[in-house]
Amino acid sequence: MEDRLALGDRYFSSRLLTGTGKFASNSLIGPMLAASGSQIITVALRRVDPKAPPQDNILSHIPDTVTLLPNTSGARTAKEAVRIAHIAREAGCGDFIKIEVITDMQYLLPDNHETLKATEILAKEGFIVLPYVMPDITISRRLYDAGAAAVMPLGSPIGSNLGLEMKPMIQRIIETSKLPVIVDAGIGRPSQAAEAMEMGADAVLVNTAIATARDTAIAGRAFAMAVTAGRMAYHAGMAGHSNRARASSPLTGFLRE
Amino acid sequence: MSFLTLANQYQSFDFKTYFNSIRPEDVQKTLDRGAGGLKRLETRDLLTLLSPAAEDFLEPMAQTARELTCRHFGQIISLYAPLYISDYCSNHCTYCGFNALTAFPRTRLTMEEINREARAIADTGIRHILVLTGEAPAKTPLSYLEAACRVMARYFSSIALEIFPMTQSDYQVLHRAGADSLTVYQEVYDQAVYKEVHPKGPKADYAFRLLTPERGAAAGFRAVNIGTLFGLGNPKAEAFMAGIHARYLEQAFPHVEISLSLPRMTRAGGAIAPKHLLPDKGFVQTMLAWRLFMPRLGITVSTRESAAFRDRIIHLGATRYSAGSRTDVGGYAVHTTDTTAQFEVTDTRTVAEVADMIRNNGYQPVFKDWEIF
Amino acid sequence: MKIRLNGETVETSIPDILSLVKVRDLDLPSLVVEHNHTIIQQTAWADTLLQEGDTIELLSFVGGG
Predict the structure, then answer these.
(1) I want to staple B155 with a disulfide (CB 3.0 to 4.6 A). Which of B26, B80, B122, B161 is the partner?
(2) What is the DSSP string of B87-148?
């Protein structure tokens, strides 16, 4: 059986989601997608500066075969996130939406409460909702109830490249979630992506680490390979640390008395 | 999906062949992964830990079990006492002293008698009560049980019910009357054996009994205790089924504390002899396997077990002991002469003696850890 | 007349959305226009007339994680 990632009613063979932020030039995005095989990529929606020179259209760099995942970055409330989702859908970006609501401007950590509210609304409207959250078992259960298509806990703060700082909590979400778990944010190296996949994550989303690499296409390829390796290791059922038996039997010796 | 779907999937599973296929290396791998307690063990790991091959790993399993238990519960043993309020029963369980076919004078306590029993138990310091009846809704209807709960609520901070399976709405009534926990044993998960030992009476309905913990959890009980009666079915298969039942409940009802018990059959009056004996070693292996599989699981050990055995297994993952138990109706204060007991108490020490033993083992006896507001 | 354009009040005599966009030399294919909180399809830009107090948002997709 093919090992595919299911999101809503769609299936993907690649478990690496990528983002379009922070690239030195939009022209790097196409080659990165080709090299990584990523089938889902995030885009953001912003006000145009009417006084600035015309901007290059980022969508023209993304092949039709790749699914657009508009995010709601910039939203500070559920209401704003819902509005951005509506605009994205009406602008022809499809039904996928990454909910990102940030009210904490100091650490840029997501607001789980507003995110849940937006998820409830948008899932009812038929969106395939991928909410970006602080790793929290309870929120992951509630997102399932709200109709989310996946839960996207952060590995560490956005753009930090710190890797899986939230590992124990993500582990618990993976063990309990009925939804696919996509580790989003903070993954700075392919080894960290592999680690997330070995743990049993269903996918990872990597943006900054690829976009700011010296060679973005090779970085994309490296992450794709790491994701595949981590997934294979997960399926292979790797052994853990050694905890060899001790010689004496202080706790169970009585059974032989 | 209810647990029935999962239970049905295992009815045709060849436990014997699977258990015998497990090698020592498999056990070592499972132990290596489970040791840290961060990575959750999977269903197949539980099979591995219950296998004959794992019998040679009891000491490392015990070390890990003690560490996990200590990490999640601290060095404590909660104490409770059972209170049998009625032994009327319309079931035909071939293994039980309360069997409808067994002729003995039946008793049902009045509210005044329940009050005396409750006071006698509370005088020993116990604040967690387990209320038991047979299955005879005509003799112990909802209104009777509700009134009994209200009486007991005067003395106890936690009231657990071990009565006949009820509907969710009936459980809600008892929950409002002060009951906060539910104990219900499937007795035997193997459906063929279940049918054989429950030939008649309301208990013959396997599925209704199997889904009782789910109805209780949905009704709002904060704790649910399940188990299998060792002696009826293949002990390793039964231990596995009880384990995955507990895991299912933990997943489906994250707000509920799940516990498992390991009642072993003793030969109560008029009952059949156990088909499969669970020796001490098998008891310990089961307990350790469950602990490694579910680090947060409550594990209850009753006074069916001997004093000497209970003193030892404190260190192996147990979290709750009964103490000073009487398993006959009115045994604490109402009747002074012996009446028919559901099972024989083996550890006959007083509550104070059990508490001392727990302290001497370096653990703290907990009489009260919960209070409903 | 005065309209709100991307959050700022501007004085303009431009009659419709298409003209508003063209005069600013914006990249048309990627542009999303919201007129009083309603998305206006490109084909309807010419027919959407501006009135005193209208709110216009000119949006486009950009890079983002």
Answers:
(1) B122
(2) -------TT-TT-TTS-----B--HHHHHHHHHHHHTTT--EEEEE--S-TTTS-HHHHHHH
